[in-house]
Amino acid sequence: MLTRREALLGAATATVAAAAVSALPAMAAVENVEDLPREKVTLVPPPFVHAHEQVASGGPKIKEFTLNIEEKPMVIDDEGTVLQAMTYNGSIPGPLMVVHEGDYVELTLRNPDTNTLAHNIDFHAATGALGGAELTLVNPGEEAMLRFKATRPGVFVYHCAPGGPMIPWHVVCGMAGTIMVLPRDGLKDENGKPLAYDRIYYVGENDFYIPRDENGNFRAYESVGDSYDDMLQVMRTLTPTHVVFNGAKNALTGDKALPAKVGERVLIVHSQANRDTRPHLIGGHGDYVWEEGKFANPPAKDLETWFIRGGSAGAALYTFLQPGIYAYVNHNLIEAVELGATAHFTVEGDWDDDLMKQVMPPRPIVAG
To answer: Is 119 considered catalytic here?
Structure first.
């Protein structure tokens, strides 16, 4: 009889073998890549983003990243509800990676032998081989290396996609993140003028589906595999028990709120790997918004609320004009207030009349 672990691993071994064979011609087709300079990138947990250039210096590089897969319990609300999570680098969402158009992304994906399941990664920014998922399926104790050229500028989701019903389960248990491919000459407005940001934050939105017991209390499980059968039944209702930013209710409020200063331009990257969402900054706007997340397209301007399609990421740039606390929410307000999809920006500084006049110049009154 198969054990639970063997059943969940399924056909992983055969897939890895097939992927290894299919990877050979793809690697052989790349010419002179090894002559490019290399840069090892140290990733940081969201909402923060690793150091990077907004405008690329020099030519394309090979950007080296490492993601370690962690299966672990994580508390997701104030009541102590525990999700048996699956993560990249131990965080929900996985870290934001930044490269420039024309760079090569070289990822080492490690699945420690302390885990119980097979995992992989599907980059929406990549072309072919199921976004890399076909080439990276690794069992516990294995690792894989994937390299692809970043050819399309924008922000793109990556997520685990091990096949069949495993795909949505792994995603709603936390296995998703974002990669940002900047134009080599940086962001531009609708007229081609440069746009720079003073700060960048990454907000990953997740929908969770925690089973309840006969008394209506959220269940706890010993391992991620033990939660599968019950969680699948909740997932099939399409009704999440939690909708949160960065892995937990209040993960970005209180002493974890996002700091900024009056006059700073803040770039907010927002992803949702599974469901549609509607980000809204209460008391602010999207000065420039790449709603579909693609920097080759001109940004929309002055949006009150923007739309992020499930399975995608978007970016919004805003200059804070006044000090105070700004709530950043999913404007499906039921999900913001009842289920947890709320963050706060704490903005410090003085009211700047000159800045207000620059951004909101007075308009002449025309007699009727």
So the answer is: yes
